[in-house]
């Protein structure tokens, strides 16, 4: 894979809660220089001024996922109305751990209905879940109309993306939904391993380092 091809997999991400306006401006400048697909910023930072070729992504119910579905839907709708092309929502992890996948689906659908014209990515926090729960959450996301499933927030102490999790997600919905690997992807080899496992998008805060190996 060529460097510019790998760059188009990347959501160049800045979600640290202490990030300033100057940090966001730097992120956008880096995105333009690196040729990444999008920037991903906190919803309170919207709107942002980006080059035409760079998409804008944000997060919803982040990072815990424990927000009420109505709050997630309202947050997503506000984000879409202030310039977000894509929204990465966190599922209610308690529903998944309880194996209540109808509730997981309902939570996702509330956000989907609120942003019919934006790309919806569903963060599963796969390190917290069993293999069976990861698969069931992928099925719920597909039923609810999501566009992507995503491994991780990158903030949970249980860990971030793994090749195994991406393989599970690919087996469940690959070819129908996009698969985003996020959390702990800091070098070229890890990024390529995630793509080989089935990832179609990468969430990276260390995008320059990820691209440096090509």
UniProtKB/TrEMBL annotation:
Question: Which locations, inside or outside the cell, does it occupy?
Answer: Cytoplasm
One annotated GO biological process: carbohydrate catabolic process
What are the catalytic residues? 88 (proton donor/acceptor), 150 (schiff-base intermediate with acetaldehyde), 180 (proton donor/acceptor)
What catalytic activity is recorded? 2-deoxy-D-ribose 5-phosphate = D-glyceraldehyde 3-phosphate + acetaldehyde
**Biochemical pathway:** Carbohydrate degradation; 2-deoxy-D-ribose 1-phosphate degradation; D-glyceraldehyde 3-phosphate and acetaldehyde from 2-deoxy-alpha-D-ribose 1-phosphate: step 2/2
What are its GO cellular component terms? cytoplasm
Which EC numbers does the record give? 4.1.2.4
Q: Name one GO molecular function term.
A: deoxyribose-phosphate aldolase activity
Q: Short name of one Pfam family for this protein?
A: DeoC
Family in the record: Belongs to the DeoC/FbaB aldolase family. DeoC type 1 subfamily.
> Which NCBIfam families does the record associate with it?
deoC
Q: Its function?
A: Catalyzes a reversible aldol reaction between acetaldehyde and D-glyceraldehyde 3-phosphate to generate 2-deoxy-D-ribose 5-phosphate.
Known PANTHER family for this protein?
DEOXYRIBOSE-PHOSPHATE ALDOLASE
- HAMAP family of this UniProt entry? DeoC_type1 (MF_00114)
Q: By what name is this protein known? A: Deoxyribose-phosphate aldolase
Q: Which organism is it from?
A: Corynebacterium pollutisoli
